[in-house]
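Weekly structure sync, notes
Attendees: PL (lead), two postdocs, one rotation student
Agenda item 3: pending single-chain targets
PL asked that the sequence for the first pending target be pasted directly into the notes so everyone works from the same version. It is reproduced below exactly as submitted, 283 residues in total.
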Amino acid sequence: MIDNNNPKILILVLCSRQYLSFISSKAQKKIWADYKKIYNIQHFVGNPFEEQREVDYISADNNNYLVINTDDGYPNLAKKTLHAFEYAVHNFEFDYLFRTNTSSFVDLKKLSHFVKNNSKNLNYSGVVLDVIEGDTIASGAGFFISRKNIELILQNDDKFDSSLPDDVAVARILKKFNISPNSLPRRDLKSIPKPNTVYEASDFHYRCRLDPQFHRILEPLLLKYLNLASQKKGLLVNFYFHYISLIFKISNFKIINKILQKYYSFKFYGEFNFGNKILFSIK
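Predicted structure, written out during the meeting:
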């Protein structure tokens, strides 16, 4: 029986072993550290795969991630999520699962308030999109799904199409049982919101994927700013707002953008290139 006044929420964060996902997950973990007693938060990755050219940033930190026994490659995303659902059902107590990713800021205090007032609408819900595959889905940047619906998916996993993006695969199998997504609010950011708009908003979920406006390596900085702005008002937050606004502006100068891309490529592949020649490698 679900306690509608205090349902158990499991937060499942989709990660990869690559550099950007790793640094964003570290920022999220620090932001959410004070909520560990309230929420079970699991960042999950798959296993390294043979064709992986990118540097594996999780291998030395496996104990801080839920490692799902399947390939971590992007084409295997749906299968990774399905196995994460299976692990969650067998190992965690929860009424609803919120599946998000490392490009999201989730204000857990506002999430708690939202859940208490909307617990009957969380069976399958998120930002509702019509996608090119022809399905109506709850966006994978952040969606709620009930334990009951996850169990339904697992009982019918032969109908789960792992060739699709995971949010599309989830939507398609639930549609077979006449379950469609409910709409939830979310703010999609391509710039830095002013501190007061963050502090005063009721929004609990911000999608912080910055490309193509800015380099994605800046996303952890935006996550940290949103956390500060959601909790405080005053000079410190305003100073930080102007500070990171300046960084974002400078990052788009052509020479700075090239340096950022070169640095990101080095951290991503572990190779420093000059033209077509690899000067050195950290792998």
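Discussion points:
- DSSP finds nine helices and twelve strands in the chain.
- Residues 186 and 205 are 5 Å apart (CA to CA).
Action: rotation student to compare against the earlier draft before next sync.
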